[in-house]
Amino acid sequence: MTVRKFRPPNRLASLIKDKGGILAQDAIAAAEVGVESLRESSMAALDESLAEIERRFGKSAADRAAEPFEVLYHLASKVIDVSLFVTDAGIDKAAMSLCGLADSCAEAGAWRWDAVDVHLNALKLLRAVGAELPAAQRDAMLQGLYQVSHYRPDEA
To answer: How many CB atoms lie within 10 A of CB 74?
Structure first.
């Protein structure tokens, strides 16, 4: 009995060997230009999302207790989606913590307004001066938000 080996053609390997295309550095430069073109609209969407969170869930929101938990989670996830251009400010991490808080509130079936208010204040501060804060201060703030969002009153 003879064994025959069969190797199907590898399309990726053949594309790599073919001449043509663009250099990796040119592709990276083009990608950066493409991403940069999204800066203005992303920053506007970020500010709109933060304003919507404040309008619906801030201390002065008249009917904030009637808002569904899912709405806060959705709005906070929109902040994460558009925070690419401010990753050095910590807004994305604060919004992730707010998503975690919305989840824990949904599980408990009750709002923890003190924790929501702390998160909203932190988001405003990080949006205003987050990138200018020393990294240690920003990290301490984010760690505090994480602890607040994962605090379980029934387990204390």
So the answer is: 14
Nearest to 30 by CA among 21, 18, 40: 21
How far is 100 from 67, CA to CA, in rounded Å?
17
CB 142 within 8 A of CB 101: no
Q: Which residue has the higher pLDDT, 1 or 136?
A: 136
DSSP string, 61-103: -TTGGGS-HHHHHHHHHHHHHHGGGGGGGTHHHHHHHHHHHHH
C-alpha span between 92 and 83 (Å, rounded): 6
26 in Cβ contact with 20 (< 8 Å): no
Q: In this structure, what are the phi and psi dihedrals at residue 119, rounded to the nearest 5 degrees?
A: -65, -45
Indicate the pTM of the whole model.
0.78
d(CA 128, CA 66): 29
Q: Which range (17-26, 76-85, 128-137) has the least confidence?
A: 17-26
Distance separating alpha carbons of residues 73 and 111, to the nearest angstrom: 13
Asked whether the predicted pLDDT for residue 154 surpasses 70, the reply is no
> Residue ranges of the domains in the chain?
39-155
